[in-house]
Amino acid sequence: MNRKDLILASMMGTIIEWYDIFIFGTGAIYISAELFPPTNKTVALLNTFLVFALGFVTRPVGAIVFGHYGDRIGRKVMLLFTLLASGISSGLVGLLPTYDQLGLLTIILLVVLRLILGFGLGGEWGGAVLLLTENFSSRKTFWVSFVQSTVGIALVLGSSIFLILSLLTPSQFMYSIGWRIPFLLSFLITIVGIVIRLKIEETKEFLKIKERNEIYKLPVKELFKFHTKEVILGTLLSGALGTIFYVGAILLPAVMEGLGVISPSQGFTATLIMGALDSIFVFIGGKLTEIVNNKIKILILSNIIGLILLYPSFYIKDPLIVVTLISSYGIVHGIGYSPLASLLSDLFPTNIRYSGSSAGYQFGNSFIGGPASYVSDFLGAISYALYPVFAVSITLISLISLFTSKEKNTLEK
């Protein structure tokens, strides 16, 4: 395959995967009203965030399962399965009956679909990154920026659809039918993604180890027996950057909308701008990594800026500044996201790379980044001053890991 086809194939699947994740978060206020008991708004939104967080429970499982078979039989087949699992499960959310119609069964079905979605995403990201890093011999951090840009692109896509619908349709329509439209569009986007991915070939580096008969029978066993430290490092770094992202994309808009500081349309606008900036700055982060020839330094820069940004984001209540602050999280996340992907790929040898990079990334996002909105909202319900505490703590731990890791010298380049 030529370079253009590889990039498109790697991007298309991850756009769909992330789109499915973000429309759930972006539409949380509508989902909480339609699919949960008619309690007070705070409890309903907290329950929605809990279901959102539950989707991250199966991401590590997906990482292990798809990573295992991806290291055993190849990257291509797994990328088709991951796409189908999450695309179909997301589309079905748009067909769920309301809580008034089916009661508890509606919530159970929603949880099941979120778990399937998380399972698919668990194997998606690692495979998509390897599709580029294992086919391109040079400038890997820059090329992987295309995959990393899909997070911002998907956020823009999901936010744009919700923004357009909220501006063009009455509130009653949005709460009944409108919020379902973005989910139903997942079916169409998934079909497009499958057609594109059917055209790709296996990666060059995987074919080499296959020819040399260097494939393990149990890649996961080898991973946790000899590379546990690398998995832990990947988990901490991925978790911190994921926390920064979800605070900006999910938590802050919901909190500020709940306080009446910004309207839902302003929240959609802010996350749309954040996504656009994220898509731009992943390339800037990739280019900066090439210029300084040091992934660690760029990751440290990203974490420090995020640390500075957190507390003001919750205490400044001017609508325009709030929108600006939410948008700026795209810059923070984007700068560090490409070097993170390249670093995770470099941490592991080819025959356990799918398992290793997927495990580190998904463990971090599942156990740290994903639950960040729920944990922060829970802490904020105790005292408003506690809203940023979780994110600040995780970012500090990430910085300590970057400064003190024994792998620092070998991974800087």
TrEMBL record:
Keyword Metal-binding applies: no
Domain Major facilitator superfamily (MFS) profile: 6-409
Keywords from the named record: Cell membrane, Membrane, Transmembrane, Transmembrane helix, Transport
Bilayer disposition of the protein: Multi-pass membrane protein
One GO cellular component term: plasma membrane
Keyword Zinc listed: no
GO molecular function: transmembrane transporter activity
InterPro entries: MFS, MFS_dom, MFS_trans_sf
Subcellular location(s) of the protein: Cell membrane
Parts of the chain that traverse the membrane: 7-31, 43-65, 77-96, 102-121, 142-165, 177-198, 231-255, 267-286, 298-316, 381-403
Name of protein: MFS transporter
Taxonomic source organism: Acidianus manzaensis
Species lineage: Archaea, Thermoproteota, Thermoprotei, Sulfolobales, Sulfolobaceae
